[in-house]
Please model this.
Amino acid sequence: MNNIHKTAIIEDGAQLGDNITIGAFTIIGKDVKIGDNTTIASHTVIEGKTTIGENNQIFSHAAIGTIPQDLKYNGEDVELVIGNNNKIREYTLFNPGTIGGGSITKIGDNNLFMGYTHVAHDVIVGNNCVFANVATLAVHVEIDDNVVIGGLTPIHQFCKIGSNVMVAGGSVVTQDIPPFCLAEGNRAVLRGLNLNGLRRRFKERSDIDAVKKAYKAIFESGNAISDVAKELLETNDNQYVHELANFVIATKRGIPFNRK
Model:
């Protein structure tokens, strides 16, 4: 049984699961699908072709699925997909994709989006991430799993953030940040490894040691980082070292680090 406030507007065609709560003055558009056990607070707008999974909490004054902030957008069929167990706080803004970016913005599971976070069109976010207040993801940004983005941090369009990264608050990210790293500054540069994050995520100390050695070899040896990464793929069989090396090889925006 759903608990829908009498002032909420649910347009014909909207699909609601079971045990959903919708607060006062909230508007749910005709093409929206919402999964079981999701709570939506007052004064929220959810529209467009938006699919929201189960057990999500959406707080007041969020704008979810409103059209892309792209002057080229001309009413094309695009969508926003949000997974399960996400917390989406007050005054957040999530836009769907565009034709030029694959037509989809996709959010995974178990993420926390604090107040005023913006997820622009064609952004891809993984699982178990935290975005502090006023984190801003520009268009076509890709965020892997277990990432923490500090408050007041914009991320430039087309940037990629690897898994288990932490970006300090007040940073400005204009290039790709490899997995397992800590980045900080305006413009953000690598400040080493996110060791606290690795200790939480990795079961084996040997994996942390392997990533430490790989990081030093790639970013502190003074050699071309792509050459070192390729060599590591050939000489090291650790899966996390391979993840780091493959990211370095594939980067398109470059990696911001202090060269020796």
